Amino acid sequence: MSQLSAFVDANTGLIIYVISAGLLSFMLCLFAPQIGKSLGLVDDPSAKSHSLHDKTTPLVGGLAIMVPWILLAKLDPILAEFFVAPDGGGYSAFWLSFFVLIFMLIGLIDDRFHLSALARLMIMAPLFALFIVGYPSFAIDKLTAPSFGISVPLGLLTAPFTALCLLAVTNAINMADGRNGLVIGMSIVWCLTLTLHVPPQLQLLLYAAIASLLVTGLFNLRGRLFLGDGGTYALSAMIGLISLYAHGMPFGEGGISSPQLAALFAIPGLDMFRLMLARQVRGVSPMSGDHDHLHHRFERYMGWRLGLPAYLALVCGPILIAFSDPKMGAVGLISAVCLYGAAWLVTRKYQQRQFTAGGSGAANPPSSPLGD
Prior knowledge:
The structure is a single chain. This protein has one domain. Helices cover 67% and strands 3% of the residues. The protein is built from 16 helices and four strands. Strand 3 (142-145) and strand 4 (150-153) form a beta hairpin. Helix 9 runs antiparallel to helix 10 and helix 14 (294-302) packs across helix 15 (304-322). The protein is globular. The model is unreliable at 77-91 and 359-372 (pLDDT under 50).
């Protein structure tokens, strides 16, 4: 008991911060139907040809996760000194939370009015580039691979390359948001990983995000609410930028290498590139919707109750390898490619057998209440 008391005494601020985030998320989730209806943030399955659920669902999961995080990041006195004391790269938790708020608002507008892919690109790309120019601590100014002794400065390509990477992460996470619990589960994995590689102030923000993710995830798994684009865009901005901040830190202070950074998002990233290429080959828009995502394949192969933990295990494997040692980043990235390829082959053979036997095939999976 004395050890527990000592821990509580030493971490009172952290505990209050995390509990507050969880409670705020719980209240928002509890009133999700009312909030969604009042804001016009509801998912109508009849309006989307690729929906796999059959009931109208509030799109307020992003609000439940990010509103507590943004409010506490701006108001909590624990971070007051950090707000007004940027580090050498011009970092401020206040401006990070403000930028995440902007992306959440963009996502909410998309949920409400359904922006085109080109419109989203034209809005997000300049915003990412401007933030990187203003806060270079988040920029990828060089590519590093300690296992190969590589350190390549990017120079004038820093801002556009970083913006491109953030856009890719945003799109990959958004495309993975098709089954309940998936993006929330991956976000928990990413946040837990990053807590080991960022300063205490950012750890505090990540712990609060994890609390909100866990609470909202329980409602999401029960089909009570969806993340919506407001959630995926905000989570992408928050996790993507904090990952880049960790990438820019010295290795002796917990920084991560470029292969580690790539391994972190490798599985949803590989699925995004495969889908976009396959759609291009079929002569349709790379941003169009379909039922051939890896999470769809997993559900058809083993059902979503097993598919969700299997997918999350697939995400965790390369991360565990890559982050076991700074020099293992490349190995983790290679393992991600191999694991993804194996998952694709197994599910592809299953779909071929189903098609041959007159089953549902790849294009028309059965309707399910477990995802959006």
